[in-house]
Design goal:
The protein is mainly alpha-helical. It is built from 27 helices and 5 strands. The N terminus is likely disordered.
Length: 700
Amino acid sequence: MHNFFFNLIPFIESFFLYENYLLSKDMFINFLQTYCYNFHYFTSFFSVTINLLCLIIIPFFCFIILFFFSSFFSPNNFSKYQIIKAFLLKTNIMLIFLSCVFSFYLYLFYSINGYLINLQCGIWFDFGLLVVNWGFYFDQLTFSMLCVVLFISFLVHLYSFSYMEGDYYQLRFFSYLSLFTFFMLLLVTANNFFQLFLGWEGVGLCSYLLISFWYTRIQAVKSAIKAMVVNRVGDFALLFAIALIFYLYRTINYLPLFILLPYTAFLDNTFICTLSYIDVICIFLFIGAVGKSAQIGLHTWLPDAMEGPTPVSALIHAATMVTAGVFLLIRCSFFFEYSEISLFLILLVGSLTAFFSSTIGLIQHDIKKIIAYSTCSQLGYMILACGLSNYNLALFHLITHAFFKALLFLTAGSIIHSLIDEQDIRKMGGLQKLLPISYTALLIGSLALTGFPFFAGYYSKDYIMESVFVSNTILSYVLYFLVILIAFFTSLYSLRILFLVFFVKTNISRGVFFYITESSWTICTVLIILILFSIFSGYFLFDLYAGFGSIFLSNSILILPEHYYQQYSEFLPIIIKLIPMLFGFLAIFIVLFFYFIFCNSFYNLKFQYYWAYKFLIKKWFFDIFFNKLVVFYSFIFGYKLTYQLIDKGVLELFGPNGLLFFCTQVSKSIQKSFFSITLSLNFFNICLFFIGVFYSIVLY
């Protein structure tokens, strides 16, 4: 086929090496893989291609249908078409579920067997040297992201069916969720940077639509605009990096670039000062990731994004928008491995973001914002792992984090729903017996987040901390102490939420307390599923992504030999491996001490060290800094330059006002000239008349 180029490249001996790094605990996966392998022979070339494309197109189809019908459902006829609306929503959920199931099928057959699939589906646009095709690239990284995105998206859709049940515009909300899923799938399956940028901009657009879904709330609209504006900085940096890649290599497709890079990385191609083209490309790619993944400096939009509905927060923070930056770093590992400067910058920014976010989360009172800052902190861990060239650990933590972060957000939504939209944890308490499923879910999610032994976060986050200790960098021991401190702060604010919501004496008003009930079984089912994945996902996926000698991601990432130190973490002393757990138990003791034994001491400390409390409650003064030094002067500059000089100056001069003035002056000149000529002719006629009269009198 000319329009569909289908290329399957099996990794050499991957099937035979498969059993060497997967232990007997994966016998169930082996069985499913064998079944899928036999089933593959009954699948033709055309059907595989169509199935892969349908996997991506189904969410977009759901968006078109739901958005079309949403215009017919208004508050006036809300109760009239309930059956039709329920049918459309259930069909949408079923289609997303089918996509999720098919992504797991692809993961079990294609991904584990080491296949690469490259689909070329026609030309997007052709500008001579720049030819961009619609193409899709499926490797182990892509299949992993597909499973995470579609699984979390399906659970969020199912959760929203009950959570948004009374909303008049539920169809529009579901259409936005489906569009969000589609653009994220487009981003992770792209085989060139232009298509990736299309998905990149699409998730930004959908975040704006979902954060401002309740557009009658001014704060929601302001938060959505803030998210769009802040992300423009990262988007511009990514676009500049793509332009520089095309200028240097004359292509933006992944495969040619990844093949060319090892041969061109060491050429003398200085861009500016001592920075090479590769360094500049990597720095701007990283700035793009900083904006999308809310790293320090461009993080201010993420806590404010909590103004949207809670399912939106879960989808943005767990599997879609904020993970796009981490995905970009992992996908472009072939670039970053040849730029020591960018790796050091990534390491520095990731560690600072994790520390900064964990300190702010200690004293926040909004339950959703505390979890949002924990997202910033965990993203800092992933970025930190990329800076150490441990891209497999970053992906592993991204997957496990998606499960327990979705669990935390959706549990927070269930609690808020039960308390009639109360989000302040100081106004909660005593809910352990009233909300048993929510209590269990928040407990499991908090333990997974803190890295408690044998939960999902323990296998991914602790391994990143161990890799920091064995990394051959100047700041190895300093960074290790820093990440241990971050883990300690994470345990503190996670346990703080748990104790203030469920264990301390209740501060809930009487009118609300007697009507508190657990959420619907639809919501509880979603929470139970996420509980299981938050417990067992780390154990079952550890050998695949982080096991010693695993070659699962060999086709997807590049780690140069001089940057590979993961093998040393297997032989660390046991005391080094136990330090994070010891700090976790210390955090439990501190929370018990301040909230149960000496509860007044905490408030005394707050007033005694008010300067530190103010520094943290003001979020390190980042918002004040941006508002007074960046936003304020940007407004002044924009008003003086773009409004007064350009809009009211140049454009008005050469535009409508200038054209009006010119036409008026020309018409006046013509009018004056015409009047002068008419007056002269009239005077000449009068003179001739009097001359004629005079001659008539004289002659006669």
